[in-house]
Amino acid sequence: MTSTAGIPVIRPDDTASISTVRHSHPGDALSSRQRLVYVLILGALTALGPFTIDLYLPAFPVLESELGVSPAAVQLTLTGTMIGFGLGQLIVGPWSDKVGRRMPLILATLVHVLACVGAAMASDIFVLGGFRLLQGFGAAAGGVVAMAMVRDLFGGKPLVKMLSRLALVNGLAPVLAPVIGSQLLLVMDWRGIFWVLAAYGAVVIVAVSLWIVETRPKSARLAAGEKTVLQRFRIVLSDRTFVGIAIVGGMTFTGLFSYLSSSTFLFQGTYGFTAQQYGLLFAANSIGVIIGVQTSSYLMRTVIGPQWILTITTGMMLILGISITVLDLTGAGLWGTVVPLWFFITMCGFSFPCVQVIALNGHGQEAGTAASLLGAVNFGLAGVISPVVGMLGVSTAAPMGAVMSVTSIISIAALWFIVRPSRVPELSA
């Protein structure tokens, strides 16, 4: 162990020596303070993608007016970001298995910073859409490499605890980003939001350069180099449990994102929320994410396996999605939307760490590839499916609730017929 600027880090040679001395995994030897440092830095990396995607959501009506485009055109810039994020993970994840975590992280984040500058200076919706695609591509490294680093260091129930911390950030960031974005709009225009994102990316690069070192041992990199990218993809995709749980995760995230992509038009347009009131709504929903992630993590470590938690949450999400649709169609109004929506988002919080633990626990040797596929499915499906809400209409909550219901049905089917909960191995201590 060494220290940089007073912050403890693990050096590459430490991971090899620690794992052979009374510890099953390198991270088991970290002190509470050292784990906190990793949670903070890797959490910031994980949040980069969701903040890139969602920070400008409150500015959608302004973009629509200033650029003279339709709501669907503005939503397509969001879809482009999601697709770029998904594709970027498919490249960065396997690359990090082969060459290590640090270099891909720094280079991809640099692409993100440059794309943010381009988006801030965009003159029309097409240029903005192109730079948003690049932003998503560059931000992809944060989420996938952070998860891979955690899997490099931990396994079993300690992996649950660390991934729950990242899942908390990953679940909170999409919800908190519009809150922060709405406050930023009080002091700057929509272009300023992209300058803020550029600064965030630059800070991430500095933090990684100073305090994040290689967690992927050289021997593992050499072993990964003996396999092609396609071979590593084949290893992960031949795992029935991984494929099923990736579908569950992708559908859960798509259900959440159907809300994120339509909420600005629904709540600001239909219900007349100001940008700040809209931000407060997101803040209230963030409490649900916190409750879900933390409770789920505790249950996984002490009471019940993650697969059994998912059997409950997927069923509840279906009930809540149907409730949103029915209550809206029967004229229940604002409260008929926001109450079941809060519980739906809470169920998403329960699900996120369960999906990550099941997906990564059995793939320590190809953690980057597994994390990239998981992320690509999440953001790829959300990017493709969530615009359906815009096409169905964003003046009522019924289309959003309908998409949530359909994604929940697919999650339930994937969990019971592909994953098969009784066949998921128990977590090691």
Automatic annotation (TrEMBL):
Cellular localisation: Cell membrane
Sequence intervals crossing the membrane: 36-53, 73-93, 105-127, 133-154, 166-186, 192-213, 241-260, 280-300, 307-327, 339-360, 372-394, 400-419
InterPro entries (UniProt xref): Efflux_drug-R_Bcr/CmlA, MFS, MFS_dom, MFS_trans_sf, Sugar_transporter_CS
Keyword field contains Flavoprotein: no
GO biological process: xenobiotic detoxification by transmembrane export across the plasma membrane
GO cellular component, one term: plasma membrane
Membrane topology: Multi-pass membrane protein
Keywords: Cell membrane, Membrane, Transmembrane, Transmembrane helix, Transport
Origin superkingdom: Bacteria
Pfam families referenced in this protein's UniProt entry, alphabetically: MFS_1
Major facilitator superfamily (MFS) profile domain location: 35-423
GO molecular function, one term: xenobiotic transmembrane transporter activity
Alphabetical list of NCBIfam families matching this protein: efflux_Bcr_CflA
Family: Belongs to the major facilitator superfamily. Bcr/CmlA family.
PANTHER family membership: MAJOR FACILITATOR SUPERFAMILY (PTHR23502), POLYAMINE TRANSPORTER 2-RELATED (PTHR23502:SF132)
Protein name: DHA1 family bicyclomycin/chloramphenicol resistance-like MFS transporter
Lineage: Bacteria, Bacillati, Actinomycetota, Actinomycetes, Micrococcales
